[in-house]
Specification:
Length: 248
């Protein structure tokens, strides 16, 4: 792996030594002139396909990945792909126990959540925007993981933070319908609107599901210029990649 730590993010969690994970940023490790979107790996946000292809190739080269990332067609749902193929299955989470299979999640405000079994035999990655989070994408991912809940840890990647994320009543009501204690993650701003703390909601869901070791969180894609943010940049926003794999 080339030294990408200066511009990309490495999870701060006590995962097994064979578990590798990195989150890209807007910064290009090759120092190429920044495009309007910066280092973007998303193929569905209007960027130049050639630029996206170069960025994806750079991702593989920079991290010395053991294979092509297994990209998903993310739809803010709860489907979980097991050892996803290269055809981009429609899913918002993926799991593997196979060394060399690189799982990849794309985000630009939504919350990427990475999972690892303590013994380094299994990993997972989930895309948790508010819709997927409310619908149970984290619980569906954990249901598909073979490792025990007590033997699994989670890391919360960069997402939009509560003070930057205003939502309507429908979002708050979706979470409160599942658990009234979710009210603690919302603060009123103006009639019918609330700030929404995705990190707090994810931690609440994970703990309720039996995950006690939760790391990461605390970043804000909206205020951090290194990070992609769709709410901040709109159509000009690219996508970050959260990649995780088991070393051979």
């Amino acid at each position: 792996m080339r030294d990408a730590a200066a511009s990309w993010l490495v999870p701060d969690w006590p995962a097994s030594a064979n578990v590798r994970a990195v989150v890209t940023t807007r910064e290009d490790p090759e120092g190429q002139p920044e495009s309007i979107r910066g280092f973007n790996v998303g193929t569905r946000c209007g960027d130049d396909p050639a630029a996206v292809a170069r960025h994806r190739a750079c991702l593989i080269e920079t991290l010395c990945l053991p294979g092509q990332p297994r990209w998903l067609r993310q739809v803010h749902g709860t489907n979980v792909a097991i050892d996803p193929a290269h055809q981009e299955p429609e899913a918002d989470a993926a799991i593997t126990r196979t060394p060399g299979v690189v799982l990849a999640i794309q985000t630009a405000d939504c919350l990427p959540v990475l999972f690892a079994a303590d013994d380094g035999t299994e990993i997972a990655a989930a895309h948790a925007g508010w819709r997927g989070l409310a619908a149970g994408v984290l619980e569906h991912t954990l249901d598909a993981i073979q490792a025990s809940r007590i033997g699994t840890m989670a890391w919360l990647g960069p997402a939009i933070a509560g003070p930057s994320y205003e939502v309507g009543d429908e979002v708050r009501e979706a979470f409160l319908a599942h658990d009234p204690e979710a009210a603690a993650a919302f603060s009123a701003t103006r009639p019918g609107h609330w700030t929404c703390d995705l990190y707090a909601l994810a931690r609440q869901r994970l703990r309720a599901a039996g995950i006690t070791r939760i790391f990461g969180g605390g970043m804000d894609t909206f205020t951090d210029p290194r990070l992609h943010s769709h709410r901040r940049d709109g159509a000009r926003s690219g996508r970050m990649a959260s990649v995780i794999w088991l070393a051979r």
